[in-house]
Design brief:
Elements: E1 6-9, H1 17-22, E2 26-29, H2 38-46, E3 51-54, H3 62-67, E4 74-77, H4 87-92, E5 97-98, H5 105-120, H6 123-131, E6 153-157, H7 161-171, E7 176-180, H8 187-202, E8 212-214, H9 217-223, E9 226-229, H10 249-254, E10 260-263, H11 272-280, E11 286-289, E12 312-314, H12 323-327, H13 335-347
Parallel strand pairs: 1-2, 1-3, 3-4, 4-5, 6-7, 6-9, 7-8, 9-10, 10-11, 11-12
The protein binds nicotinamide-adenine-dinucleotide.
């Protein structure tokens, strides 16, 4: 098949781009590892490209859609989160945009789980002890002990795709599970997990009975030993349940002093100054972050304070950063494959050209 579509990718997303080349697309890829300046994106869009491949580093708003008026047919984002794309602007200009939901769900959930393990079992200070040759003797409790994850209670904040996958992983560790989601409650899934927990107990696979239930945010935060955040970034006015600074001084103070917080969602969901204070003043036991209010994390961030170093794990927006998840050209396995397929669906008018039927388009309401 030969197509003359022109596409600009703001980033190299690997072999999946060959699918477009093979189909005859005129593809230009921004060659640097950093994001292109907005002026360059505007220039490319103004030059009449049909499709734009983006990452969460690109700000896609009215300026971009205006530049592509009459020519830009699709924006294909390599991520499930799309808070960098102004949905209202896309709708006003009638441009569909796609995302890569589902294919990164398990990878992100497992990373969140490993973050809890690393944080609670003090893997980072323990390795430092060994590497720095400060491990002088084996002792029952010196120089420190970690907290078990198995058998504890976890609060899942946001029970969408990744939250549900996290629930599945936590149930395998015999955890009790508190769910909070004001907009979507999957009672069928939660009942199936409870049935599985009961069966595991009945068949002697787990010693203690465990439970899962939906609760209020107050209950979730005040009862949990671990709190895992899986919400989209929703700013004030964008929905009835915004998530901007959902974790602030008030909500952090609701958590147990022995509890741990993990955020793999989006940075601005947590007020970082409040979190640094909470860690410094021991309102909570520890936190592990994969995402930040400003990325990359600034050099003078209070989260880098050496006083909280042992209780604050910092990762570089890495939760979906696994080989198959990021790069597989198979749209059922990789973000790159799904991103390319989303673009093709729109440009080549798959599904009879009905955008509402295209599985990876986000803003279906505009069509
Ligand atoms: P999803 O849309 O399936 O689930 C999000 C859930 O959050 C929904 O059920 C929604 O009802 C709920 N929610 C909305 N407002 C809420 C609130 N105020 N309180 C509690 N819950 C609320 O999305 P998903 O696929 O599970 O992904 C979640 C987010 O994770 C993405 O939007 C993205 O920002 C982030 N993410 C990060 C990485 C990473 O590499 N760190 C990877 C993948 C996704």
């Amino acid at each position: 098949m030969t197509n003359n579509f022109r596409v600009f990718a703001t980033c190299d997303i690997g072999d999946a781009l060959n699918i477009l080349r093979t189909r005859g697309y005129q593809l230009e890829v921004y060659p640097e590892p950093t994001a292109p300046p907005k002026a360059l994106v505007l220039e490319k869009v103004r030059s009449g490209i049909d499709g734009l491949i983006t990452t969460l580093r690109d700000q896609i708003d009215a300026e971009v859609f205006e530049a592509g008026k009459g020519t830009l047919k699709v924006v294909a984002q390599l991520a499930v989160g799309f808070d960098n794309i102004n949905r209202a602007d896309a709708n006003r200009y009638n441009v569909p945009f796609t995302h890569t939901a589902d294919v990164l769900t398990e990878a992100t959930a497992e990373f969140a789980f490993f973050m809890f393990g690393s944080l609670a079992r003090k893997m980072w200070p323990a390795e430092h002890l060994t590497r720095e040759n400060k491990w002088g003797f084996w002792h029952p409790y010196l120089p420190f002990l970690g907290d078990e994850v198995t058998g504890k209670a976890i609060a899942i904040i946001g029970t969408g795709r990744i939250g549900l996958a996290m629930i599945k992983k936590c149930s395998g560790f015999d955890m009790n599970i508190l769910c909070y989601d004001p907009a979507y409650q999957n009672l069928v899934y939660v009942t199936a997990i409870q049935d599985t927990m009961d069966l595991r107990h009945a068949r002697g696979i787990q010693k203690e009975k465990t439970w899962i239930k939906y609760v209020s945010i107050d209950e979730a935060l005040s009862q949990a030993d671990f709190v895992s955040v899986h919400v989209p970034l929703i700013r004030e006015g964008e929905s009835a349940t915004p998530t901007f600074h959902l974790f602030n001084e008030r909500t952090l103070r609701m958590m147990k002093r022995t509890a741990f917080l993990v955020n793999t969602s989006r940075g601005p969901v947590i007020d970082e100054n409040a979190l640094a204070k909470a860690l410094k003043e021991n309102w909570i036991a520890g936190a592990a972050l994969d995402v930040y209010e400003k990325e990359p994390l600034s050099e003078d961030s209070p989260l880098r304070d050496s006083a909280i170093e042992d209780r604050c794990r910092l990762f570089p927006h890495f939760a979906s950063a696994a080989k198959i998840t990021r790069l597989s050209p198979d749209p059922d396995k990789g973000m790159a494959g799904r991103c390319v397929q989303g673009l093709i669906d729109v440009l080549e008018k798959n599904y009879g050209g009905d955008i509402k039927k295209m599985p990876y388009v986000v803003n279906k309401e505009a069509f």
